[in-house]
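The freezer alarm interrupted the setup, so I double-checked each line after restarting. Inputs confirmed:
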Amino acid sequence: MRAGAPRRRWPPALKAGLAITLAWVALALLADVIAPFPPNDHNMQAILHPPGRPHWLGTDNFGRDVLSRILHGARVDLLMGVVGVLIPFVIGVTLGAVAGYFGGIVDAILMRILDVVLAFPWLVLLMAIIVVLGPGLKSFFIALALVGWVSYARLVRAQVLVIRSADYVAAGRSLGYSTGRILWRHVLPNAIAPAIVFAMSDVVLVILAGSAISYLGFGVQPPTAEWGLMISEGQSFIFTAWWMTTFPGIALVLLALGFSLLADGLAEYLGVRE
Amino acid sequence: MSALLSVSDLCIDVTGSDGPMRAVSDVSFDLAEGEVMGLVGESGSGKTLTCRSVLRLLPRKVAITGGRIELAGHRVTEMTERQLATVRGPVGAMIFQNPTAHLNPVMTIGNQIAEPVRIHEGASRAEARARARDLLVQVGIPDPDSRLDQYPHEFSGGMRQRAMIAAALACRPRLLIADEPTTALDVTVQAQILRLLLDLRDSLGLAIILVTHDLAVVSQTCEKVAVMYAGRIVESGPKPAVLGRPCHPYTEGLVASQPGGGVPGTLLKAIPGQPPGLSDRPPGCAFAPRCPIARSSCESAVPPLESAGPAHRTACPHWSELGAAA
Amino acid sequence: MSAEAPLLQARGVVVRYDLPRSLGDLLSRRPARALQAVAGIDMSVARGTALGIVGESGCGKSTLGRALIGLQDLSAGDVSINGLRVSSNMPKDRRRSMQMIFQDPYGALNPLLTVAQTLSEPIRVHRIVPPDQVDDRVADLMARVGLPTDLMHRRAGSLSGGQQQRVGIARALSVEPELIVADECVAALDVSIQAQVLNLLLALRAELGLTLIFISHDLGVVRQVCDRVAVLYLGRVVEEGPTDEVFGDPHHPYTRTLLAAAPVMRPDAPPPGPPPVGEPPSPTDMPPGCPYQTRCLQAVDACRSGPAPPLRPFGPRAVACHLHDPAAARPDAGQPRPTEVTT
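Predicted 3D structure, all chains:
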């Protein structure tokens, strides 16, 4: 018996992932309202204040409220993750679809570029480009665009190679549909699911990379509240003020968990094999 | 003569996301030594589950929930997995539609045929190999000596099906269950495989259950036919009677909708509608919504099998109207 | 053949696939090997008729079907429909006149689109009707192929196989074609659904005057639907003619084998007789002479060398066999044959 419609029931992982991710988005959007203190307000009376009233997660060495900085930092980290994935996603999906559908010389050239990019460790390549462009969030996004698209291109190309020989594509050709219509309306929507799933797990990688690069001093610049930067700043106080590093670390893990669950849930929901 | 295989009141449940659903209900049939029975039905009719349950080769989430199966004195339904291993092979064996999926691609054909002989009969390597060679000859594979050391991908589709038959015959079973064995093959190769199965029946006294959707194949190869619809046997009996004078409207519809018999270009007598899915089987006769002679009483209770001639049974209480209508 | 020009005319159609060369091939400088899926076929189909193309897997019947409507590039030869040349990049208003129905009813539908979306797209693309009438047109099409309109917003995956095939047929009809190539269009369907879909095709053909090219391995189905039939073996037509004549009195030994092997439903059918010998040779490794000679029980020396016998007219039909050379044989075709004729 042929399997009927795929089960359109939401897997638990998808629900949990969505809940965590949306909670972070809400917290980031409402940071101005719910944060008890402005993120960059120095309180010299309460330097390295341990967790307790009124600083629930303590303060840092400038007397800034850690909770408020985490909430505002969520904006920066979410922005890094989403924009840092969206740009390579769009570039990679487009190139992968075109290469897979048309094949030939375009495909051959693209695949060679891809091999070269993939030959380097991802983070090292990212760092190298940022060093050349100069530190900052803009450099980070440009570097990601140059490096990150390859994974998407490869995933989409592999799917397109299969789908372009599907009968509904032949039917589209015999119905006189333009190549663009076939590619964008019939091939790509059926080929994109693995790329979407990968994008969700890629958000985690990008946020971690962003934090790591900020930590090393090449990403977001102080005094902006950013989790990686906060961890980096708290490093020297790890024995005297453990909360400076621990709480941003937990925030990072929780956000990563949200997107990982989202990726797993989406994979199950869309029927994508890992 | 006592039956080699006796299936009575077999019920099979399939567990889906909404709990267990009845896939096969109250199926009973007997098969004697050397007899060839066709089990006919469309996809979802339960024919494959029924034939697989004879050797308890059911997938996960599928369970026999009622009835009894007796194969050569073994109560298959009550055996442990360990006991079943002594039945599968030496008593009953099975071949499938897709030999490629049921042959190990990284093992030579010879070893795959010899393996069950060594396991079940404790034969030595040389004995088993000699046996495998004999089997290849028996199933009509030319040049058996070099074929023994080849891998499945070096065989054509028809040869692979022959090799699977050879592996099934390795432990001299008395029953061969063939699940759509020729569906994936071309007609000329299909004719070869069917002829081979009948020859094996004649030379080995093998009983065969031939599961198929193709009435033409059944009409050429089987002595008995059982027609399944929505998990039940709706008609069974000797082939000439069932196909020549169908006593169930479903069988009659299948026979009438065979293409190629009528005048070219004219419409076929098609059965309207489509078979019910597992979850939406009607409470009464499952065929009633598509049946030309159904009446309201058909929709309330499942009609029992009744006799319509010597060894000929039908699940339609109004079968006597069929001949008149035709 | 009537005096009217045929709808479809194919001359010397060849489709060749280059096989990938292994490193060993390259090093030993073996020439690139090619597989001839279609090895020079001439064909003409009269308007309003149904031509069956039969043969076993690998005989090239699907490739031929696609080549005839420009879904497959030709390596040689040409095909024209209404006197206009068919190619893979012809303009869309010429494409309209030739459509295809596929074997796998689910695979032929974009799984993300609803029935209404699938059917309205070609109507919009070709501006068959003004935009405000598209929905009515979709409803008409669904009614015509026997699909209840409440399925309109369902996706392909939630339809049964028979319903999916009806959507495929409706989509082909949406652009008002003259020619439909049906490639094994009932092979994936259950027996009771098969008859429904065949009936639908027969009714549509009568109603709309469609020309049909019906590709199938099932001789019974072809006999039911087609006026003429072409028997393919390894990329060549070996026999062609009116269906009742070819099936009633097959001339080519392969046609005879095929007919004898095809089981026919008869309550009193005897067990199958001695089966045909061998299997078709690999298309990459064709024998010299007649392609069928390796399995032919009547092959003579002439069959085992030289070029393959050409397709020669033989009364209302044509046969490609040295044993049926009209120059050698008596002109009348009805000579008695030793083998029994299956009906």
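Quick read of the result. Chain B has a mean pLDDT of 89.
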